[in-house]
Amino acid sequence: MSTHPTTAFGIDIGGSGIKGAPVDLTSGEFAADRVRIPTPQPATPQAVAATCVELVGSFDLPEDAAIGVTFPAVVQHGVARSAANVDSSWIGTNIETVLGDALGRTVLAVNDADAAGYAEARYGAARSTTGATFVATLGTGIGTAMIVDGVLVPNLELGHLEIDGHDAESRASDAVRDRENLDFEQWAERLQRYFGVIEDLLWPDLIVVGGGVSKHHEKFLPLLHLRAPIVPAQLRNAAGIVGAAALAAAHGKPVITS
């Protein structure tokens, strides 16, 4: 087996869809078209595992291909400590064991924001940056990730910082912008406060902003005045799959097949 695999497989588990594709680890691009299967309802461990088996079966993967999975939860040493948009029976469940047993392969599980952040650091908006990169995904909530000199610091739930007496994402997420009908100038004031606190705590060298709203970055990023450069994410919807695959390949665990 090559000590430097050129491809790995990423699976992005979300509340509405489970998506996957092989990833070219040199370029960070999909090595084949992505496949999407609707997330089973309820999204129990057994149902999600069966869907992942169907998904992986859509591709002709080498037996030693690393598989990484993004999951909408705090993931601590493979175990889901929370559950967002999937069945609550996942809490306390070892994602890597459940999916690995079903697939007959070694699986690495990672928080979805961490996977996307790692992808941006390795292949996207932060690929030429050294030091500390802070990635925020602005959507229903605020997902956050921190990568320091290429190393992921996992499970930083900094969308839940308490700022001015409020949970940060309850004031500054994209969903709040939409719900409260804020214009970009009004929303930028809230983002300024949020990222200002992040800067005072972490002193990142670069801030990357992702989420669907990042395609409108020219309407709000120029309104922010921070010490660090703040730039839009580049990988968009591919980031989770790419990051999960890259993290799995870098993990260095031997591949066990049943």
Your description of this structure?
This protein is of the alpha/beta class and 258 residues long. It folds into two domains: 7-114 and 238-251, Nucleotidyltransferase, domain 5; 125-234, ATPase, nucleotide binding domain (Nucleotidyltransferase, domain 5), CATH 3.30.420.40. The protein is 29% helix and 25% strand. It is built from seven helices and 15 strands. The protein has helices at residues 45-56, 95-103, 112-122, 169-172, 174-179, 184-202, 239-251; strands at residues 7-13, 17-24, 29-30, 35-38, 67-71, 75-76, 79-80, 107-111, 132-138, 142-148, 151-153, 162-163, 166-167, 206-210, 230-232. The strands form four sheets. Strands 1, 2, 3, 4, 5 and 8 form a six-stranded mixed β-sheet that branches. It has a five-stranded mixed β-sheet with strand order 11-10-9-14-15, with helices on one face. A hairpin with a 3-residue loop joins strand 1 and strand 2 (17-24). The longest helix has 19 residues, at 184-202. The protein is globular and about 50 Å long. The two termini are 17 Å apart.
